[in-house]
Amino acid sequence: MNCRGLGNDPAVRSLLDVQRRSNPDVLFLSETHLDRYPADCLKRRLKMDFMIVNPSNSRSGGVLLLWKREINVEQIFSTPKYIDVRIVESPGKI
Fold this sequence. Notes:
Blueprint: H1 9-22, E1 26-30, H2 36-45, E2 50-54, E3 63-67, E4 72-78, E5 83-88
Antiparallel strand pairs: 1-3, 2-3, 4-5
């Protein structure tokens, strides 16, 4: 889904609809055009527990990774254009 920025209500409503239908454990969004505070508000609305946000620089970019508590995410590296993480399987889980 390409929302061209998550600062507008129709884009947020569409994203919330996707979240309700799919209920993802991990969600990556690019070209968000969000800074930390709006990203945190979106995290709460999507019922996610953690996030890594690389804010946009003025009129372009912005990447956001959100995930639930059950998922163990280790950040390896990030830049304004991408986030590199490792999902670590918890012992005893299949």
